[in-house]
Amino acid sequence: MKKVIIDVDTGVDDALAILYAVQSEQLDILGITAVSGNVPLEQVTINTNRMLNLIGINDKITVYKGASRPLLREPFHEFRVHGEDGIGGALDHIDMEIPENEVFAADFIIEQAKKHKGELTLIMVGPLTNLALAIRKEPRLAEWVKDVVIMGGIVESAGRGNTLPTSEFNIFADPESAKIVFHSGLEMTLVSLDVTRKVMLMEEHINELEGTKYFDFVKNSTGIYRNFSAGLYGINGCALHDPLAVGVALDKSFVKTEKYYVDVETKSDLSYGQTIVDFRGLLKKEPNVNICTDVDHERFLKMFLDCLKK
């Protein structure tokens, strides 16, 4: 099985991504690293451990705390979409003691990359702070890590961002870290809003899960998210941003990709956090990021639902 570390800022779609990764039974999850993002780090850690408890594997996978804030900017959270606790109160019924772990997330990434040279895939579905810190501490990560799949950015649909008109949340929350990661030499695929918004979990899809173990969680956790989406976009659905990143790590044929030079805007108030892709090669820079240009959304959604039905 493919060895992976999943880096999360556990809101609704992160929780669904964890569920999908586990239920796929195709990934050797070495650990889960937590980062400040959708909600503060402490809540991310609580949500992630509760999610593992719901699945029944909290004794098998360890959660490692990482950065509690971005490299330079003040912490930025997204309570409007994910609710005050990040998952719409869907796991409030789980009363558990949250395990303490003294290993810092960036150190865990370095340790596992060194131990499993050429084998490790990083699935990054939150701000990229933990990975940027790991790169700063150990530049040889680019030689050790096999692949990085990043949920973040918006490239071909500029003006349709979800934080600023040109910016996606994960990159906007810590663009300086994203800049470090994009220029690190790591082999990476950017799963952007351009494709994740084509994979919508609608109410009829959720109803397909009725009678299964995760029906109540999926329905309850996505409630606030779906209401927000209905109010802003007129669509009562939950975009499967983070689960699609897991899907790409499992099977890259879900998406079509092309490699271009990508950079991140870190100075402009108007476009802070924008992922800028040089489609025409005007900057004369070596391509550094595989961007997703299309997705087989029907096949992915079927695979996702089939996994949860298990």
Can you characterise this structure?
By secondary structure, the protein is α/β, with parallel strands linked by helices. It has a single domain (2-309), classed as Inosine-uridine Nucleoside N-ribohydrolase, Chain A (Alpha-Beta Complex). It is built from 14 helices and twelve strands. The chain has helices at 12-24, 41-55, 79-82, 105-115, 129-137, 141-144, 169-173, 175-182, 193-196, 203-207, 215-221, 223-233, 241-250, 297-309; strands at 2-8, 27-34, 63-65, 120-124, 147-151, 188-191, 200-202, 237-239, 255-260, 262-264, 275-277, 289-295. The strands form three sheets. It has an eight-stranded mixed beta sheet with strand order 3-2-1-4-5-6-12-9, sandwiched between helices. A two-stranded antiparallel ribbon has the order 7-8. Residues 4-301 form the Inosine/uridine-preferring nucleoside hydrolase domain. GO terms for molecular function: purine nucleosidase activity. InterPro entries: Inosine/uridine_hydrolase_dom (IPR001910), IUNH (IPR023186), Ribo_hydro-like (IPR036452).
In the CATH hierarchy, what is the superfamily? Ribonucleoside hydrolase-like
Distance between the termini: 19 Å
Strand order of the largest sheet: 3-2-1-4-5-6-12-9
Radius of gyration from the CA trace?
18 Å
Q: At CATH's second level, what is the architecture?
A: Alpha-Beta Complex
Which H/E pattern describes the elements? EHEHEHHEHHEHHEHEHHHEHEEEEH
Helix content: 25-40%
Counting structural domains, the number is 1
Computed structural class: alpha/beta
- The shape is globular
User: At the third CATH level, what is the topology name?
Assistant: Inosine-uridine Nucleoside N-ribohydrolase, Chain A
Domain Inosine/uridine-preferring nucleoside hydrolase: 4-301
Keywords: Glycosidase, Hydrolase
Organism: Neobacillus notoginsengisoli
Protein name: Nucleoside hydrolase
